[in-house]
Write a structure and sequence with these properties.
homodimer, Ribokinase-like (chains A, B), ATP-dependent NAD(P)H-hydrate dehydratase activity (chains A, B), 342 residues, UDP-N-acetylmuramoyl-L-alanine:D-glutamate ligase, ATP-dependent (S)-NAD(P)H-hydrate dehydratase (chains A, B), nine-stranded mixed beta sheet, phosphoprotein (chains A, B), 12 helices, alpha/beta
Chain lengths: 342, 342
Amino acid sequence: MPIPRAVLDQLKQIIPPLNGSLHKGQSGRVGVLGGALDYTGAPFFAAISALRIGADLSHVICSPTAAQAIKSYSPDLIVHPILREDSSHDKVRGELDSLLSRLHVLILGPGLGREDYMQSYAKLALSLARSRAMFVVLDADALWMVGQDISLVKGYRRAVVTPNVVEFKRLSEQVGVDKDVPQRERSQEVSKRLGGVVVLEKGKTDLIAIDTTGEAASLEESKISGEHEAGKVKVKEVLEVDVEGGLKRCGGQGDILSGTVGAMLAWGKCYEDGAFGDQNIPASRLPVLAAVGGSMVTRTASRRAFQKQGRGVVTEDMIPEIGPSFGEVFGAEFQGGEKGRL
Amino acid sequence: MPIPRAVLDQLKQIIPPLNGSLHKGQSGRVGVLGGALDYTGAPFFAAISALRIGADLSHVICSPTAAQAIKSYSPDLIVHPILREDSSHDKVRGELDSLLSRLHVLILGPGLGREDYMQSYAKLALSLARSRAMFVVLDADALWMVGQDISLVKGYRRAVVTPNVVEFKRLSEQVGVDKDVPQRERSQEVSKRLGGVVVLEKGKTDLIAIDTTGEAASLEESKISGEHEAGKVKVKEVLEVDVEGGLKRCGGQGDILSGTVGAMLAWGKCYEDGAFGDQNIPASRLPVLAAVGGSMVTRTASRRAFQKQGRGVVTEDMIPEIGPSFGEVFGAEFQGGEKGRL
């Protein structure tokens, strides 16, 4: 079941034009929160993928235990080692809020880990992002975090969760999805129980589901700015991305996905703010579009890297494939460089 | 409005010859002051660009919080982690002065940040550089610094400031440019109010402006060494560099510019000191020439990297394009390698 042309046409509208009309930042300022003692590759993959799909600026907010390694992977990332285990909550709150004020999207989870202080800072960041009505992507141990307390994300329709098979199974149980719900309907049921949060269920094909017919979706706090009917218009939809991916499930591909979805949400924010485009697409539609676009490009990059590297493919091989994949999915003219024609 | 041939001819005179006559250092010893907790890519981009356009040695003077990452980006940089938050001012003064004595130019700002101790050391470095009559480039948070206290740079005609759109707007207000001054004349007005400091206003096209008709330009301390009439000969000029750049405004391109302008100023210093050339070009002309040359090469590198990478271009992609861009702007024979003919 390919993605309908109408969805792709909408998606193309939130791709920033490459005509010199935008200044630095108007193609997206992305933040990734993650990176601690054990994990440094994951936040790097998310943050660099955001740049390689086309964001202007990509920040990593991490523990000092991870910062030097992440910085060393790429001078193009801006790495903020502010999540100190021995910092006060108030100090970090101020630093986080100042950082978030400069970002269009927050990707929570890649390399977050489960250390208490990291989980605690991640919760703080999510609540600050909600109070700023920012788009957020939740992956990996940020899914574990919201699984412990669904209210953290419930009813927040600017969020996309991106669980893999294991994470999806756990999340389904945590939100109380009945075992009898057929496999194909489960992602929608999870979205419904999360109050309309967009669910990107990764798998052999990726399912992007939204269901706002549940109770929480009409909560006041779920209001999508500039669209007062958000809580009233009920949406129930599932889209399947069956674009061919690679045949190797090396670790890290999910981080690429969170970065590409995040970058597209950042574009959505720039679109919503009027940096480009005609603002005909309602804000409530943007998370679905970003999830579809990120999935298509990431799966394509996975296939291309696998075609070259085969069994020995690693996630780093996917980074140079993001540009060509974007060209393959949306057309070379949207990618704008020789890479987009490869 | 292309750069006049006469300006390009002058520019070519300050390019060090590649005929074996120079020894190590006589094609420029560059220093970049910047790099602290949050920023490590910016000083790297500035320092490596100085080498890639053709300086002999490139130093980074930074905080220990940034040094390991910057060192890891390239073994060709010499990284001095002397800007310790807990050092005494006197100790750092001695270390800085010793370092500056070996450099031809100081680039202040890339990755400097706004932490108090970094701002304080940057002020110290600028005053030491002035007392040594060194060429300086001020970018990023060094512009924020001089914006707080214009006297730091006022009347210092060996300085080039390189504000982007946002920084230029702020600087214009800080020096008191009237709102009625037409857009095209504002960079000159800023130069005038800074007492003849060269302004490189980055934008869709780059404007390089100098105006020494203001009062401060005749201050004693503005004297350009070897040119006693500097305070008397009034100059008012604006040049526009409309060389095609890339269509993506990813963060970091400004750092490349500060590095290329800085390297050309270092060449200017070697030229002034008699390492090569005929010394017909007055020292007061060198900042304008370096700003024009740096702008032309940087914009070309931006265009070339964008042509290849399209939407996913990052600043790191521009580094290997600096050599070919130099060849494109000045001719392959000036670049000297196969890269210059690409």
